[in-house]
Amino acid sequence: MPQLLLYLYSCVKYARSMLVDEATYLHGKRVDDNPTTDPAAFAWVGLYESTVNELHRYQARFNFNDLAVEDALSVKQRPKIDIYKEHTLIVLKTVAYDTTTERIIVGDLTLFIEPRVILTVRHGEALPLRSIRADLENHPERMEGGPTAVLHEIIDRLVDQYVDVVSKLAEDVEQIEDDVFDDEKPAPASRMYFVKRELIEFRRAVHPLVQPLDKLAAGSVPYINSDSALLFSDVRDHLLKVIDEVDALDALMDAALHANLALIQVQQNADMRKISAWVGIGAVPTMIAGIYGMNFDNMPELQWKYGYFIVVGFLGVVSLVLFRLFRRNRWL
């Protein structure tokens, strides 16, 4: 039985770790799955949830740096560009919004770029690259740009995905703002902190990408065609807009949190006024009843025939007057 479980686990792990696609492109067109000596050709290898052994095979084939391979196997890297003698390494964060759980899903995408090779290692379900490859294959004039064109298309789609996620988060924040000022709904404190955490996680994934895009827009990254600097500059502008929107949403969430806290304090103060008013109304009857309940023999009007009715009437009148006063001052 343990051997069977181990076998099933290895099968599942192998199924998740896979070579998505590998092809050689010449003049923007897919030619075959084998390398070519034509200097205009380049290879695009796509891996998903790559294992150590699988990535090491490609390392031996393309002469990747050990530190770069280690980064590709890690899922806790920040977006960055590392320049090595053999190649350039670019780490990106993929983000998707799960409408079922209303959470954001963060993944990793690592790209090894050489003059005639681009290898992508994807961790997580966000941003499948099959559609990007298919779209480029349908437009050979764009694929002809080589690894630089592939990189630009990936980052452009990535930032577009950021825009979609921001729009979903904006809907969540707008709903929270409506709920905060809706008297018929309970205070959405837990929901507010949940969305606040999602905004922080999204910002953590998006903000660090600015520096790599600055380098790409400056055309100063080895193995990346400097003629594409304007294209990367346009993507950077879109990213900066996303960051501005995230910062604005975060500020709105802070304002909503403070408004919710203020409303809670106002409600608590109103409750305290009501409690104090009822205590004040009950204080006079309690005081008089306490005085006449001390069982002294010599007390004024203790033996008076109408004393009980007068005291009860007096208590009723005083209580009614106090009630009207508190009601007029909106304590009740």
Automatic annotation (TrEMBL):
- What Pfam families does the record tag this protein with? CorA
InterPro entries documented for this protein: CorA_cytoplasmic_dom (IPR045861), CorA_TM1_TM2 (IPR045863), MgTranspt_CorA/ZnTranspt_ZntB (IPR002523)
Q: Which GO terms describe its molecular function?
A: cobalt ion binding; cobalt ion transmembrane transporter activity; magnesium ion binding; magnesium ion transmembrane transporter activity
The protein's UniProt keywords, in alphabetical order, are:
Cell membrane, Ion transport, Magnesium, Membrane, Transmembrane, Transmembrane helix, Transport
| Chemical reaction(s) catalysed | Mg(2+)(in) = Mg(2+)(out)
- Tell whether Magnesium is among the UniProt keywords: yes
Q: What GO CC terms are in its UniProt record?
A: plasma membrane
Give the location in the cell.
Cell membrane
Transmembrane regions listed in the UniProt entry:
275-294, 306-326
- Keyword Cell membrane among record annotations: yes
For this UniProt entry, what is the primary localization, expressed as one broad class?
membrane
The record describes the protein's role as: Mediates influx of magnesium ions. Alternates between open and closed states. Activated by low cytoplasmic Mg(2+) levels. Inactive when cytoplasmic Mg(2+) levels are high.
Q: Which family does it belong to?
A: Belongs to the CorA metal ion transporter (MIT) (TC 1.A.35) family.
Descriptive protein name: Unannotated protein
Taxonomic source organism: freshwater metagenome
